[in-house]
Every structure is written in C-alpha cells, then in structure tokens.
Specification:
The complex is a heterotrimer of chains A (107), B (165) and C (275). Chain A is mostly beta strands and 107 residues long. Chain A contains no helices and eight strands. The chains are: A mainly beta (107), B mainly beta (165), C mainly alpha (275).
C-alpha cells in the first residue's frame, strides 16, 4: 500500500502571485521514544525531509523531527513564476520516499 | 476529491510496517501500554538547540509572529503557524524558520529553508506537545540576524482512552 | 498484533491523565440521573463541543487527515480484488451516485445474520460474497479507507430512521437502548449517565458530548489515525472500566443502531475529526 498524499494549491495563478501550497501525507511519524508493553523500544520511523521544486528548482525545504504529528501537514508559499510542474518529495527512515507532481498554469 | 484540489495518490514507497501500528486491532480488555520516560528535554536542551541554530548570535524579539492556541485539546496535534515580517526580496528575506520546544523529548520540531521565491514567509504545520510548555519560533534573516517569539501552550487530554486504566 | 502506547510522546511529568476517570466517577455519582432522552431540538453533534482548532481541521478537507483515508478508499473502490476479479466500481459504478446516502441508512437489517449490520460489516460482506476476496479485518486500513470513502458520500445528508423503515430492527433497538442505560463496569456507570444526563459538563477538562455517531469513521487526534464507531465505543467502555466487547460483537451493533436512531435526522459529517 502506498503512502497517500494530498496536495492543494490553485492550479491557475497570475504571474508574480504568491500562492499557498498545502501538503499532507499518510505517515505514523513514530517518534522512537515509545516502548511496547513488553518493554521493547519501538524504532523511530519518521519523515525526515520534505522538498518542493518548481520546474526543478528547489523553492522550499523542511527538516522534520518526531515532534510533528502523524500524517504531517505543512503549508507554505511560493511565487507563481511561470507555468510548469511542482514536484514534492518526502524522504525518511527505512528508505521511505514518496513523490508527487502537479501542474500549475501561470498567465 | 471533488473540490478542484489537486489531490493525488502517491506512487511512493510502501509504509506497511508503520501501518500495523495504526490498525490497532487490539485484544479486548488487554492492558496494553506502558509509559516510558526518556530523558526529558530541558530548557537547557532548548537553549542548546537555539545555539545550534544561531551559532551564538543574539536572538531579537519581534518580526516573528507565532500563531498557536494557548489551550490545546490534545497534545498529539497542536496547530502552529509562523509568519515573519519580511519583504522577501533577494536583498532582504527570511532564510529559515525553526520551531523548538522546551519539554518535548527532543527540542527540535521543524526547520524550513526558504528564500525570495517563497514570496511570503509564513508556514503552518501541526506539532506534538508532551505537556504544557513553551514553544519558540526563530527566523534566520538574510542579513545574518535572528528573531524569535515564544508562546506557552496548555495541553489537556482526552478522557476516554484506549489503554486500560 | 503488537500493542502500542497511546501517546505519541510519553508524558514527561505529572500523571495528569490516569486519575481522570476515577475522579470522574466520583463527580458523576454526585450528579442526578434522569433516564430521559435528549429532546430532539437540543441534540448537538460532537463537533459542537470541540475547540476552534479541531473544528477547523474538520471543516477543511485539505487539513482533515481523514481525507487521506477517503482518497485511499477511492483508489481501492476501483481496484479489482478476489477470485471474482471485480472491483467495487464494476458493480456499483461511481460511488458519488450509487453510494449517496447509503452510510446514513446504517445499521440496517441483514438477512444473513437476522440482525443489524453496520456499514463496515456490509462492505466486508460484499468483499467476501461478491469479490470472493480474503476478509478485511475490522479496523484494518483498507476497511477504514473504504468505509470512509463510502460514508463521505453521505456528508450533509440526514441520518435515516432505519427502524421506521424496517420494523424487524425494533427489538434490536430496544436491546441497544437497554445497553446504553445499563450501569456497568467497576464504577457502575451507564452510557446514559454521561451522554444523556450530563452532556456539556466538563470531565477532566473535556466536554462530555452527546455521543452521536454522525462522524464515523473519523480521525481522532488521540488515536492519531482514523477509526470506526466500534473503536470509539470500545474506548468509552475502557473508560468506564467495563470489559469491551470483541469487534463485530452483536452488542456493538445494537448500540450503534440505538445511537443512529437517537441521531435520526441529524446531519452526517463523516469523516469527522474528534479530539
């Protein structure tokens, strides 16, 4: 079963307009600070990094820590510079990697 | 979704292992959980985390607005937004925003890196708070200065919980 | 299945949580028990008792983590499964049409078990009989995703009066009502004492809601995941220090039927968010 992601931003924007991008992805963000009843530590399993690229240029990057919620939500802004593709990449523990792409039309 | 959102499924990696945690098909009535106390982060650990961010440069009050509720219904999810007063031009912009806490097991919550292409220095996310405590947001500006704001959040918790009492 | 501690972060100091229910018991004993139904115009969804931030999460699909389950359910809906090699969509078409209002009519009468069946049970049945696929466990990610997706198609619609529509449910409704009013568990509380007689009062810092099932399955911050109504009932039973029933037990179905009848005409809001 793949990680489920949700990306939300206006698909059409005016050149130079500042748009808000909202992202959410299914992930438990297991902190690594918990133990089972048997006393076994539950290994950390978190997303550690998120990157947003706009036509292959990095415009936003985040380092994530265990203190972010499960199914982490992150909203940020970017300038609608030109039409093209936004790429969103989440990477984390145990080789976790998820990528989304979405088109934006700038007029 | 039906609201015109660019909503998509990820073609990314599986998360089978972690799912198991979420399924929680727990045997009825079993006493399941223990609470462990890792070395708690301390105000000193938060100070140390701040030093790593600023490299010892002074933290100034102002320019940063930390939006976080003074009272949270559940420490598992506390809405948090940070906005920094900046023109976000090539010459004058916010380079990074960090959020740190005082009493979580580890002080860092998130660190984001941005620049003039952000257009606006504002982020929103949701964080976990282990207890009532102070949260601090720090902005690193392109001129090398650091600005911060702190807020105290009181955390209450659910009453009917899953673990045996 | 491995058991996991409840909190994302263990509490560092101040065991504030543990004594909550014991204190609550003392608190409730001091309060009157009326054994009367909430007048229909006074009914409020659990939403009405939440803080502004939790409401904001529910109000906006892009911030409601249960949306991830809905999207996943939508994908599963279209995926072929089982020996029959059929997807839900092969028989039911576009869920936005075929499933509109379906969740609002559950629990319904099920001929096979000659008793009430909930939405999850109904989906499990289709999975076994129509898809001939391996069963989905209660609270499994797939079942929650499918039920969240189906329930989403009833959002904004009124909860149907299933008992008025099918008289065979009447005896089960009475059983559900009796369960709701029965004192049980180590502190001898009934569901009704909290949810009929003392709703709106604060219990260990939390408002006691009226226990309407209009939002399920939903994302509970406490769980950090989506869960079903049965999981929620299980939590309350543990809170009452009563032995919870096994998932799928007839008692849960009777209770779910009674809760749905109690909420008849109220607005479906699945998948909701609760603290």
């Amino acid at each position: 079963m793949t990680a489920q992601a949700l990306i939300h931003f206006p698909k059409k924007a005016r050149r130079g307009e500042v748009i808000e991008i909202r992202t959410m992805i299914s992930h438990p963000m297991e902190t690594g600070f918990r133990r089972t009843q048997q006393g076994e530590p539950i290994p950390r399993n978190i997303i550690t990094a998120f990157v947003c690229r706009y036509n292959d240029v990095e415009v936003f990057r985040a380092d994530l820590f265990p203190a972010l919620t499960a199914n982490p939500f992150l909203a940020f802004h970017t300038v609608a510079a030109e039409s093209g593709t936004l790429t969103f990449t989440w990477t984390g523990d145990d080789g976790f990697r998820a990528e989304e792409r979405a088109k934006i039309e700038v007029g | 979704m039906d609201d015109g959102a660019a909503a998509m499924r990820s073609r990314g990696m599986t998360r089978r292992g972690m799912l198991m945690a979420g399924l929680a098909a727990l045997p009825a009535g079993a006493a399941l959980t223990v609470i462990v106390r890792p070395a708690a982060a301390t105000p000193e650990a938060m100070q140390e985390a701040i030093r790593r961010i600023t490299g010892g440069a002074p933290l100034r009050r102002g320019r940063v607005r930390l939006e976080i509720p003074p009272l949270s219904e559940n420490g598992n999810s506390v809405a948090c937004a940070v906005a920094v007063d900046s023109p976000m031009t090539a010459a004058d912009h916010v380079k990074a925003i960090h959020v740190v806490t005082e009493k979580n097991p580890q002080p860092n919550v998130i660190g984001v890196h941005l620049g003039p292409r952000a257009g606006r220095a504002r982020i929103a996310t949701r964080l976990r708070l282990s207890d009532t405590q102070t949260v601090t947001a720090i902005a690193a500006l392109s001129d090398g200065s650091f600005w911060a704001e702190s807020a105290n959040v009181i955390v209450t918790m659910g009453a009917c919980l899953e673990d045996a009492l | 299945m491995t058991a996991f501690p409840r909190e994302a972060f263990p509490r560092l100091r101040g065991e504030k949580r543990r004594p909550a229910l014991a204190a609550a018991a003392a608190f409730l004993f001091a309060l009157p028990a009326f054994a009367a139904d909430i007048p229909l115009p006074d009914r409020r969804s659990g939403y009405a008792f939440m803080g502004p931030d939790t409401r904001a999460m529910q109000d906006d699909d892009t911030q409601n983590p249960a949306t991830l389950a809905v999207l996943e359910g939508e994908a599963l809906w279209a995926r072929k499964a089982g020996a029959a090699g059929r997807a839900c969509a092969d028989c039911h078409g576009d869920a936005r049409e075929s499933m509109t209002g379906a969740a609002a009519r559950y629990p319904r009468f099920d001929d096979a078990s000659a008793g009430p069946i909930d939405l999850e049970g109904r989906i499990m049945q289709c999975r076994a009989r129509r898809q001939e696929a391996p069963p989905l466990a209660r609270e499994s990610r797939e079942l929650l995703a499918l039920s969240a997706f189906v329930a989403r198609q009833s959002r904004g619609l009124p909860v149907a009066d299933a008992v008025a529509a099918d008289a065979r449910l009447a005896p089960f409704l009475e059983r559900g009502r009796a369960l709701f009013r029965r004192r049980q568990g180590q502190i001898a509380l009934s569901c009704a004492q909290c949810h009929d007689d003392n709703w709106g009062k604060s219990l260990a810092g939390n408002a006691i809601p009226q226990a309407h099932p209009t939002g399920y399955p939903l994302y509970r911050l406490e769980w950090q995941s989506v869960g079903s109504l049965q999981r929620r009932l299980r939590n309350c039973m543990i809170g009452m220090r009563a032995e919870p029933y096994a998932y799928g037990a007839p008692e849960y179905l009777d209770l779910a039927l009674y809760l749905a009848w109690r909420a008849r005409g109220m607005t479906m809001e699945a998948p909701a968010v609760r603290p």
